[in-house]
Predict the structure.
Amino acid sequence: MKRPFATSVWCDGNWYVSQCLEVDITSQGETEEEAPASLKEALELHFEPPQATRPPRVRMIEVEVGAA
């Protein structure tokens, strides 16, 4: 199934950056055409079903929040 995604492309130094506006994924390329192509690949990988070879290790961490 194909689905369209809106993207924004801009130049940042020597690189072109392409950002998906619906999903928090960004990629880059050396040309204005390469950046969205790289973003397309990143989005395809993001939506690919996971294929774990072994169960992931889940850990808990503690973070100090609201301390002044």
